[in-house]
UniProtKB/TrEMBL annotation:
Coiled-coil boundaries: none
Bilayer-spanning residue ranges: 694-719
Family annotation (InterPro entries): Cadherin-like_dom (IPR002126), Cadherin-like_sf (IPR015919), Cadherin_C (IPR032455), Cadherin_CS (IPR020894), Cadherin_N (IPR013164), Protocadherin/Cadherin-CA (IPR050174)
Record's subcellular location: Cell membrane
Membrane topology: Single-pass type I membrane protein
GO cellular component, one term: plasma membrane
Organism: Pundamilia nyererei
Keywords recorded for this protein, A-Z: Calcium, Cell adhesion, Cell membrane, Glycoprotein, Membrane, Repeat, Signal, Transmembrane, Transmembrane helix
Protein name (Swiss-Prot/TrEMBL): Protocadherin 2 alpha a 15
Length: 778
C-alpha cells in the first residue's frame, strides 16, 4: 500500500514539470508575457518589468515608443517608458471583469516600433476574499404541517458569493435547535444547495413558529459569512381539544340585578389554528331549562348574561354546565361548571301575619290580657332579615315577645273604657335592618265590648217644666230623657215615677210616664189658681245585669191662662149688679173726681192687667175715664142747661190674648151743694170698707212682683259675671209663685227686664224680641 502511494505521488510530480515546460516553450514562441496581480490593488501598483522581460534596456524601450494598444476604453494598466515597469492604471475588480470564471486573465497588446514588434502581455487577476456570501432574501418563511414525519426534506435557496475557488461558499451552518438540521448537496461550479431536514415531529401547540438562522461560510481566512432568517410556520391539524383557562369559574351576583348584566366571562383556548382553534360556547346538554330562562351565554365571547330575575329567596346559587367546542369538521368539546352565587339584598319587606286574633275584648279586662298573636317573617337573610317590631303609640296595647323568634303577643297595658274609646286601630310596625330598611305596617281593629259599668244619666238635673193650666187630661205634657253610655241592653233605659205616698208626692198620682221614652202624661187638668207648682222624682234604669239606675227631680210650674173675667168690686149694688149712683154738686169745677171704678181679675200678669173705657155716656163733654185707674172726673163745670142725671157705661177688660171683660154702670146725679155734702158723708163710710179690701189685694200682688223682680236682677247680675256665652233656660221655683214671668232680654250691650203674662206673647208692653236674641225665664 505504501509503495502504491509513493508511485502515485511521483507520477503527479512528473506531469507537473512536464506541463510547466510546455507552457514556457509556448510563451516564448508566441512572444507573450504573463503576470499575475491580486484584484483591488490601488492605482500605481507595479505589475512587472517589461523592459527586463523583453531583454531591452530602458533607453531602447523609450526610443522605440513602447506602448499598450487599447480601444476607446481606458486600459487598466500603463507602461512607464522611463523605467519599463507595468503599473496598475485603475483599481480592478475581478468579479466585475471575469464574473465567476475560475481564471481571470486580462490580455494586453503592446507594440514596439522601428522595427514593429507586437508583444502580448497576459495579466492574471487573482481573486481575494472581498465578498461575503449573500442570500437572495433576508428572511425566508416555510410552512410545514405538524403532521410531517421526521426525515422530511425542504430545499432552501442557496447563498451567492461572487468569489471563487477557496473563497467561494464552502459550507452551511444552521442555528442550534432540536427539530431541524441542514444538509448540503454539491452541484459543482461552486454551487452547494442547502436542505432543511426535519429531525423531530413538530407540535404547533407547543411551538407554532420556529426561528432558524442559516449561515453560509466561504473559505477565506478569515472566513466571511452571510445569514438568512428562516421562519417555519407549523401548520395546524385538529389535534387539540379546547382548554378552559381556569379550573373553577365562580361569580357572586346581587339578586334583582338588571337583565343584560354580564355575570362572568368564561374563556377557553384551543392550541389548534384557524377553524380548528376557533371556539364557540354553549350550555351543556343537561342544563335545567329554568336556568336557561335566567341566564344566557354568548357563543362567541363566552359571556354569561342575566336574562331573567334572580331571587335569593328562590335559589341561593346556580351550578351551570357549559362547554367549549372548536369549529373543525369533527369538533372537539370540553365541559366546565360555572358556580353562580346569589347575594341577598334587602328587597323583601317584612310580612306580618296575625295567627290568632280576638276581634273584641271586654272593657273590664285585666292589664296584660292577650288580644292577638302575630308572627313576623322576612324572606331576606342575615341582617336584611332581622326584623324589629313595635306598635304605634297612642293605644293601650304593646307587643310582648314570645319564646319563639319573631312571634309576638299583643297585650293590654292599661285599663280599657269603651265609653271613652269603643274601638282601637292597632298599627303594628315591622322594620328590617337592611340598608335601605323596609317597613311594613298592618292595622287590626280591636273592638272594646261593653260591660254594664255606667248608670243612666239624665240630660238635665233637675228638670224644670212649665205647663199651661187647663191642659187636656191624658195628653203628653213633657218628657225626660236619660242616656246610658253603655250599649245594647246595658244602654236600654226604662223610666218610672217614684210614688211613695207622701204628702208631697200625692200630685204624682195624677201623672203617668211612658217607660220606654220618658214621656209624661197628665191625667188631670191643672188649675193655676188652685196649684201653682209641684215636684216629683223619675227613676231611669238600664237593662244590664245587674241593673244600674239614676233618678232626677222634676219641678213643674203651672202657667196662668186668661180664664177669669174681671170682677167689678165697685160700684156694686145690693142685688149684686155692677151699678152705682154718684151724686155730685152742680158747682164742681173741671177735674173733679166723681168716683173710681174698681175691678179685680183672678188671673195675673197681662191676663190680670185691667183697662177701663167708656162705652156709653149721655154727654161726652162732661166726663172722662182714666184708662188705667178707672177714675171718673169732670171735664168742665156744669151749666144750667146740663141735665141733672147722667148714665155712664164702663167696660173693664183684661189684656189676655183673648180679652175677657165686665161692665159697670155709674149714674151721676147733679145736686145742689148742700145735698151733695150730706150724701157724701153717708157713702164715705161704706167706701172706706171697700177700699180697705182692694188695698189689701193690691199690696199682696205688689209684694210678690217686687220679690220676683229683685231675684231676677240678682240672677241676671250673676250670669253676666260668669261670662257664659250659653244662656240656658233656668227656672227658679218659688213657693209664692203666682204665674207671672219675668223675661230678661239680653243683648250684647244691655239687659232689659220686662213683665209678661204669657211668654209666648211677644206683644207684652209693646216688646218685640229680635230674632237670634237670647232670653232667660225667671
Amino acid at each position: 500500500m505504501e509503495q502504491r502511494r509513493c508511485l502515485t505521488w511521483r507520477t503527479r510530480r512528473i506531469w507537473i514539470v512536464y506541463i510547466l515546460v510546455l507552457v514556457l516553450v509556448w510563451k516564448t514562441a508566441l512572444g507573450q508575457f504573463r503576470y499575475s496581480i491580486s484584484e483591488e490593488n490601488t492605482e500605481g501598483t507595479a505589475v512587472g518589468n517589461i523592459a527586463k522581460d523583453l531583454g531591452l534596456d530602458k533607453a531602447t524601450l523609450k526610443e522605440r515608443g513602447y506602448r499598450i494598444v487599447s480601444g476607446s476604453a481606458e486600459p487598466p494598466f500603463r507602461v512607464n517608458t522611463d523605467n519599463g515597469i507595468l503599473y496598475v492604471n485603475r483599481k480592478i475588480d475581478r468579479e466585475e471583469v471575469c464574473d465567476r470564471n475560475k481564471m481571470c486573465v486580462i490580455d494586453l497588446k503592446t507594440v514596439l516600433e522601428n522595427p514593429l514588434e507586437i508583444h502580448y502581455v497576459a495579466v492574471e487577476i487573482l481573486d481575494i476574499n472581498d465578498h461575503s456570501p449573500v442570500f437572495p432574501e433576508k428572511e425566508k418563511r416555510l410552512e410545514i404541517s405538524e403532521s410531517a414525519l421526521p426525515g422530511a426534506r425542504f430545499q432552501l435557496q442557496a447563498a451567492r458569493d461572487p468569489d471563487v475557488g477557496q473563497f467561494a461558499i464552502q459550507q452551511y451552518k444552521l442555528s442550534h435547535n432540536e427539530y431541524f438540521r441542514v444538509e448540503v448537496k454539491d452541484r459543482g461550479k461552486d454551487q452547494k444547495i442547502p436542505f432543511l431536514v426535519l429531525q423531530k415531529q413538530l407540535d404547533r401547540e407547543t411551538n407554532e413558529k420556529h426561528k432558524l438562522r442559516l449561515t453560509a461560510v466561504d473559505g477565506g481566512k478569515p472566513a466571511k459569512s452571510g445569514d438568512i432568517e428562516i421562519t417555519v410556520d407549523v401548520l395546524d391539524i385538529n389535534d387539540n381539544s379546547p382548554v378552559f383557562t381556569k379550573e373553577l369559574y365562580s361569580a357572586t351576583l346581587k339578586e334583582n340585578i338588571p337583565t343584560g348584566t354580564v355575570v362572568i366571562q368564561v374563556n377557553a383556548t384551543d392550541l389548534d389554528q384557524g377553524a380548528n382553534g376557533e371556539i364557540i360556547y354553549s350550555f351543556g346538554n343537561e342544563v335545567d331549562p329554568k336556568i336557561m330562562e335566567i341566564f344566557s351565554i354568548d357563543a362567541n365571547t363566552g359571556e354569561i348574561h342575566v336574562t331573567g330575575k334572580l331571587d335569593f329567596e328562590k335559589s341561593t346559587s346556580y351550578e351551570i354546565d357549559i362547554q367549549a367546542s372548536d369549529k373543525a369538521q369533527v369538533p372537539l368539546k370540553t365541559g366546565k361548571s360555572v358556580v353562580i352565587t346569589v347575594a341577598d339584598v334587602n328587597d323583601n319587606a317584612p310580612e306580618i301575619e296575625v295567627t290568632s286574633f280576638s276581634s273584641s275584648i271586654k272593657e273590664d279586662s285585666k292589664i296584660g290580657t292577650t288580644v292577638a298573636l302575630i308572627s313576623v317573617t322576612d324572606l331576606d337573610s342575615g341582617i336584611n332579615g332581622k326584623v324589629i317590631c313595635a306598635i304605634k303609640q297612642g293605644v293601650p296595647f304593646t307587643l310582648s315577645p314570645s319564646l319563639q323568634e319573631n312571634m309576638y303577643a299583643i297585650v293590654t297595658i292599661s285599663q280599657l273604657d269603651r265609653e271613652i274609646t269603643s274601638q282601637y286601630d292597632v298599627t303594628i310596625i315591622a322594620k328590617d335592618s337592611g340598608e335601605p330598611p323596609h317597613l311594613t305596617e298592618k292595622t287590626i281593629s280591636v273592638v272594646i265590648s261593653d260591660v254594664n259599668d255606667n248608670s243612666p244619666e239624665f240630660s238635665t238635673s233637675p228638670y224644670t217644666f212649665y205647663i199651661t193650666e187647663n191642659n187636656s187630661p191624658g195628653a203628653s205634657v213633657f218628657a225626660v230623657k236619660a242616656s246610658d253610655r253603655d250599649e245594647n241592653d246595658c244602654a236600654r233605659v226604662s223610666y218610672h215615677i217614684i210614688r211613695d205616698g207622701s204628702e208631697d208626692n200625692k200630685i204624682s198620682s195624677f201623672l203617668n210616664i211612658n217607660s220606654d221614652n220618658g214621656e209624661i202624661l197628665a191625667l188631670k187638668s191643672f188649675d193655676f189658681e188652685t196649684l201653682k207648682t209641684f215636684q216629683f222624682q223619675v227613676v231611669a234604669s238600664d237593662s244590664g245585669t245587674p241593673s244600674l239606675s239614676n233618678n232626677v227631680t222634676v219641678n213643674v210650674f203651672i202657667l196662668d191662662q186668661n180664664d177669669n173675667a174681671p170682677v167689678i168690686l165697685y160700684p156694686l149694688s145690693s142685688n149684686g149688679s155692677a151699678q152705682g149712683v154718684e151724686e155730685i154738686p152742680r158747682n164742681v169745677n173741671a177735674g173733679h173726681l166723681v168716683t173710681k171704678v174698681r175691678a179685680y181679675d183672678a188671673d195675673i200678669g197681662y191676663n190680670g192687667w185691667l183697662l177701663f173705657s167708656l162705652q156709653e155716656v149721655t154727654d161726652h163733654s162732661l166726663f172722662s175715664l182714666d184708662r188705667y185707674t178707672g177714675q171718673i172726673r169732670t171735664l168742665r163745670s156744669f151749666t144750667e142747661t146740663d141735665e141733672a142725671e147722667h148714665k155712664l157705661l164702663i167696660l173693664v177688660k183684661d189684656n189676655g190674648n183673648v180679652s175677657l171683660s165686665a161692665t159697670a154702670t155709674v149714674i151721676v146725679k147733679l145736686v145742689e151743694p148742700k145735698e151733695a155734702f150730706a150724701a157724701s158723708d153717708v157713702k164715705s163710710a161704706a167706701k172706706d170698707d171697700e177700699d180697705s179690701n182692694v188695698i189689701f189685694y193690691l199690696m199682696i200682688t205688689l209684694g210678690a212682683v217686687s220679690v220676683l223682680f229683685l231675684v231676677s236682677i240678682v240672677v241676671l247680675i250673676a250670669m253676666q259675671c260668669s261670662k257664659s256665652t250659653d244662656y240656658t233656660s233656668k227656672y227658679l221655683p218659688e213657693t209664692n209663685y203666682d204665674g207671672t214671668l219675668f223675661v230678661t232680654h239680653i243683648t250684647n250691650q244691655e239687659s232689659e227686664l220686662v213683665l209678661c203674662n204669657n211668654c209666648n206673647d211677644t206683644e207684652s208692653i209693646g216688646l218685640v224680641l229680635p230674632q237670634g236674641s237670647h232670653f232667660t225665664y225667671f
